[in-house]
Amino acid sequence: MDIRELLSDGDLRSIGHVDQVIEYVGNDPDRFKELMNGLTDDRPVVRMRSADAMEKVTRHHPELLQAHQASLFQQLHRATQQEVRWHLAQVMPRMTWTEEEAADIAHVLTDWIDTETSNIVIVNSLQAIFDLSAVHPRFRDELRALLETQLEEGSPALKSRAKKLLQKL
What we know:
mainly alpha, 2 domains, 0% strand
């Protein structure tokens, strides 16, 4: 099965054959590597669906991310496509980071919160910083400020998530 070809049909408004790819990949590191290659495909639809499938597979098999940690860290800094960004934000807290790496990730996510137009990217970035702050408490003050800003200025969805996260903080 060629994962990238399976993910290439249709347009950005559908998930295509993502569920079939998730089932095929399972917890197989070699198949997961094939899936990861889709994150840098020339076609936006393949990048989007690869990111979606990668995020969904690693909900149950986060250990698959470990071998790709350095690559995902680089992707975080390079990704411009909103659908890829929102899935990258979701998986970052599933890996173990040094204090310095976590600070860099939080910086990138904060930049996305400040500049993105996609509410999904912003919500997932806030959630990721929240999740990282459980392991790296130094982000809590910065996170609180970000959440309070969203509570005042954000869309209804952002206000709702900010309120929930502030209560848990």
